């Protein structure tokens, strides 16, 4: 395994991206979109874990407009009671600022960069995202059906809105297999929204899995926060790996 940080030219500047890859041969690419906390050691470790299955994984710093990944990274221990919630006061301002007119244009730059990386084989890639990154992954599947063969979202929020470009409407244009792991203790993604989302995917004729993770809070995959749930995190890796193996054999 090897890793590096690269720079990507994006519509409004330059974005850092962490890349992890196996040492041998060529492998399919996977785009990883972080949660609202952003690109940091936890996300790098997750990218390394996925890369160990036989994929070249790239995790871009999607909040590049707000500063470098290092500048935006938490300085407090987010596993302490209240620390995660305090950090999110500022983080949610960045989340709200990353509107579709920004993130949709960034997507093409990220995918082009991933496909140009050394060691990436084939013209189609997988995608996985967490929190806001999960919402972006769902949108991406509909925006770039020519490239994205699999899209996974874990503890995503805001999948269903009243906007004409709501993720549950955009994803109807996808050709990818979709996997969503919903946290059942997530106020940003209530049961009613999950049902609407599932109906939209079914109506579009997509192959998908929409699973409720019992007892899991929003952010359950993130081991560097107080929301971490070990059972949910391990299950997510099992289901994500199976999705990638079905759609992008390593």
TrEMBL record:
GO terms for molecular function: hydrolase activity. Signal peptide: none annotated. It comes from the Bacteria. Residues 16-245 form the Dienelactone hydrolase domain. Keywords: Hydrolase. InterPro entries: AB_hydrolase_fold, Dienelactn_hydro, Dienelactone_hydrolase-like. This is Dienelactone hydrolase family protein. The lineage of its organism: Bacteria, Bacillati, Actinomycetota, Actinomycetes, Propionibacteriales.
């Amino acid at each position: 395994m090897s890793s590096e940080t690269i720079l990507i030219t994006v519509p409004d500047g330059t974005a850092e991206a962490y890349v992890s890859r196996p040492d041998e041969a060529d492998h399919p690419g996977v785009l990883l979109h972080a949660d609202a906390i952003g690109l940091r050691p936890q996300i790098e470790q997750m990218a390394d874990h996925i890369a160990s299955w036989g994929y070249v994984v790239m995790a871009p710093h999607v909040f590049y407009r707000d500063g470098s990944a290092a500048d935006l990274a938490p300085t407090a221990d987010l596993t302490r009671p209240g620390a995660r919630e305090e950090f999110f006061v500022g983080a949610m301002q960045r989340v709200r600022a990353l509107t579709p007119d920004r993130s949709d244009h960034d997507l093409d730059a990220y995918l082009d960069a991933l496909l140009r990386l050394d060691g990436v084989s084939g013209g189609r890639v997988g995608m996985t995202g967490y929190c806001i990154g999960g919402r972006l992954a769902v949108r991406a599947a509909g925006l770039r059906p020519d490239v994205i063969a699999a899209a996974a979202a874990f503890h995503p929020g805001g999948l269903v809105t009243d906007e004409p470009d709501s993720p549950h409407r955009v994803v109807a244009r996808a050709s990818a297999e979709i996997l969503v792991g919903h946290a059942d203790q997530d106020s940003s993604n209530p049961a009613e929204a999950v049902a609407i989302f599932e109906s939209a995917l079914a109506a579009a004729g997509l192959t998908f899995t929409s699973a409720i993770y019992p007892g899991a809070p929003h952010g359950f995959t993130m081991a560097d926060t107080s929301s971490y749930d070990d059972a949910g995190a391990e299950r997510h890796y099992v289901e994500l790996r199976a999705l990638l193996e079905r759609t992008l054999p390593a």
